[in-house]
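1st attempt posting a full record on here, be nice pls
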Amino acid sequence: MTEGVAALGGALERGEITSEDATRAFLARIEARDGALRAFIRVMREEALAGARASDERRRAGAAKGALDGIPIAIKDNIDVAGVPTSGGIRHYRDSIAHEDAFVIRRLRDAGAVILGKLNMHEAALGATGDNPWFGRCENPHRAGYTPGGSSSGSGAVVAAGLAAAALGTDTLGSVRVPASYCGTAGFKPTFGLVSTRGVMPLSWTLDHVGFLAPHVADLELLFAACAGFDREWAYARRGPRFLSPKRADPSDLRGLRVGRPALPSPFEPDIASACKRAVEALAGLGATIVDVELAGYDFSRMRREGLLVSEVEGATFHKEALERDPEGFSAGLRGMLAFGAKQTALRAAQAYRRLADVRVIARRAFAGIDAMVLPTTPQAAFPFSQAVPVDQADLTGFANIVGIPAGCVPFGKNGDGLPLSVQAMAPAFEDRLVLDVLAALEGAGPA
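the predicted structure (as tokens):
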């Protein structure tokens, strides 16, 4: 079966396959493989088949809704899908039925997408391994016993394993891009405010983004186009400023594009550093001008800790009543992190918010002479669950969440152990299409 949103959409358009056939094929793969992967919390078999049949009827009537009509997509389980529970990976909420669709789910339904089911995730989206104490440890499809990353763990696993054409995830400090990196998929989080998080169980309403994981960059473009839209009921909704003329780039010819290569203090695995070096060279070979950039004043590890503190403060606020009623519905580790957030003083929280806000100035200075920036996605490849969790998993991804700028990643070869490597691109706010163009260039130039 043809993989990915764009390719599958083309096959549907040409009549080579029906949505029902594609959906049944994905459901068969889920049944065969997910017992070992534990990527799904809930498979919506009958609902998915009904949606696929409705799509096929529209297509036969010449009334297809567009590129996503009939495409089977899986949803992280902190995003509301009406009529089924939204657990957020937490036992306490496992029977909490969503009464209406999240904004992004309505957008997908309006585009004709087929919802396959709800996906496993790191508990409360507060972590990046996918080792969930209530719904099972989600495995990396590339190697049993290895993390798929998180917190959108199931989202990365189903795309890498071919159990869905694409998946929705959420990204607070890197929770779309980390699993995309470890699982070897494309991933993208848009400019903050362009894709509504209304109807998403929050970890941090000031840092959370809805994002996308898919086999290819062309798939991300279609998902972003369908899900972006001004949500007047969401306090953080933004429209691009009228004076801005977003840049675009031809992925096969990057002449005129200035790409920043930031100085990065974090130690990387040698294969990670080598992959990023090759990626920058590939962009230069396509005509881009490479510019060395200093993120003067930005401490990667400290600002990741400040973002984590804000997430713990806001997460504790959201879950306060549930924690008081049912503390045993939360793991001991999660209770500890939320308790840490709850005990922060107003002064300490205000300091964290101020430090995060100051990063916007650092970003403006960094982007003053460049169009986009390329760097590794994670400092390491996927690692075994038996290994101590690296504290720096989100050091390189958190910057884009703190500033609210678009960022995405693509696979770029494998390490000496055969596990995926990944490179990441960022650009100023509202330059989402440019990020996708740069990712497409990297995808086209990357190792086979």
